[in-house]
User: Fold this.
Amino acid sequence: MGSVSVRDLRKNYGTVPVLHGVSIDIADGEFVSLVGPSGCGKSTLLRMIAGLEDITGGEISIGGRVVNEMPPKNRDIAMVFQSYALYPHMTVEENMGFSLKMLRVDKQTTKKRVEEVAAILGLTDQLERFPKQLSGGQRQRVAMGRAIVRSPEVFLFDEPLSNLDAKLRVQMRSEIKQNHHRLQTTTIYVTHDQIEAMTMADRIVVMHDGLIEQVGTPLELYDNPANKFVAGFIGSPAMNFVQGTLEGDALVLPTGDRIALGKVPAHEAGRPVTLGIRPEHFQLDPEGLAMQVVTVEPTGSETQVMMRYAGQDLVGVFRERISAKPGEKLHVRPSAERLHFFTGNNGVRLVA
Assistant:
């Protein structure tokens, strides 16, 4: 069983704490992505699970075994790094079979296993080549193949696509997801790109400053963020935030404009509140809020507009093709049923 359990995990570098007591359970066969800004502790957590970083406190279990003191080679995990980490003097076949060679698996079995995995990854014609003769995407496939041939309990990915161009990243995302469906091996995937996490993971773990902010499915995090940090991190373009106060069934903005609300969260009247609006939840409306157009970016299927309101830049994404020019006024209305509210002091989401 490839389940992973982390309990109150802590990590200090000297006197500097990096992880402050992280706990999470990952089911056998689940694809979980760790996301967060640089320095949040996601790669440190992954390396601790792999056995590449010492544990300051807490417990890690893999397949029901506590592995705190277990060396990496005995944890039955395989890790794919950002840098590929291929041996330049070995062929693709030799790179992919190296871990089995170290485990003293016989040559015939190793060759058969490498050929099977090469067929899955589309590398059959590349087996006799060396890494320098491969493209970036092919090198990443070889790194993945080297992990797959071992048939580990858990795959660990540490930002494996960050060195690839945008088109190839999309292709490799699809291939990794397809391979997960095929192999059903527990996968923990670290990325700073929340789009990667949204499109690939069964569940996402959002980290910030060494703590877990929220765990959930991609759409749970998108539709019901626990706090302002998660709301602003998940989604591209990011959620817009505007300060205001609740009065009856309306939100009063600093300009004096009022937004009628479909649902009003329980909150003390007159206290400040942060309104969250996703870019796609603005609608064109001649009677709506007047915003000054800053930039218009048509993409064909939609139009992204940077708008300035009360000295603040907001982003709207519209299905319509908008001909407004910078400096002109655009009248928009936030969708009353799709708004989010957060407390002014700690950013916790208020439920309507």
Summary: The longest helix spans residues 166-183. The radius of gyration is 24 Å. The CA atoms of residues 32 and 188 lie 5 Å apart.
